[in-house]
Sequence to fold (261 residues):
Amino acid sequence: MRPVIITANWKMNTTPADAGPLAADIAKATDVAGITRIICPPYTNISAVSDAVEGTGVLVGAQNVHAEPKGAYTGEVSADMLKGLVSWCIIGHSERRRDQFESDELVGQKTIRLVEAGISPMMCCGEQLEEREAGSAVATVQAQVKASLETIMAAGNGLPADLVIAYEPVWAIGTGKTATGADAAEMADAIRATIADVGGADYAESVPVLYGGSVTADSFAEFINEPSIDGALIGGAGLKPDQMAGIAATAAEAAAARANS
Ligand code: 13P
Fold:
């Protein structure tokens, strides 16, 4: 059975001074049974968050990693540098695809680095509004996932056992608009079909697919009630303990229902 996962992506928010108290508040607010909770602070606040959530069961992730193992890349952070600090890392977020021009192949390379370092990859994908309106959302997202997975396969060690995919329609991020549960579930099924093409049906069934894009305590149920969706990647609401409390409560209900079915 796939885990139910809620991940807060703090993006470029919080400081070393306020990250720890916020993480502690979120850990307390989301202290429910049966789900996986992850907080991804900026690099500079990883240690403060780790200290604050110690013993709570909350896991800590990074928001990005460099595709090369080491070298002359001023300002960048390698997988080895994150080793021991985080258990998860987001890769291929649409904001990085947009601002740093990250390609699907680069996202695949980053995944390879994370696997080498023993860090679990949370790989983002998602279509632009024009692609959704043109009816090409599914093909776009499938192409993204396929190219990244094929890059990983070409390295020869197979696909990571702990891979998570986060489907985040770009037009839903930070806009207050969400996909419908049905559209997100259709995409999750399409993503798993692509994963199955590359890595086999059993492997595809094992990969959690999260939804992201304006998830709140109010909207989360629509997504987690879809059997093919396994949780959420949360931006704005991930900075609010009361929002995270509602999301976690709904996630725990879903996890319990799935365990009993
Ligand atoms: P919002 O929840 O703020 O829309 O952000 C989603 C996101 O990009 C999470 O990675």
Notes: The mean pLDDT is 98. The chain has eleven helices and eight strands. Residues 241-260 form the longest helix (20 residues).
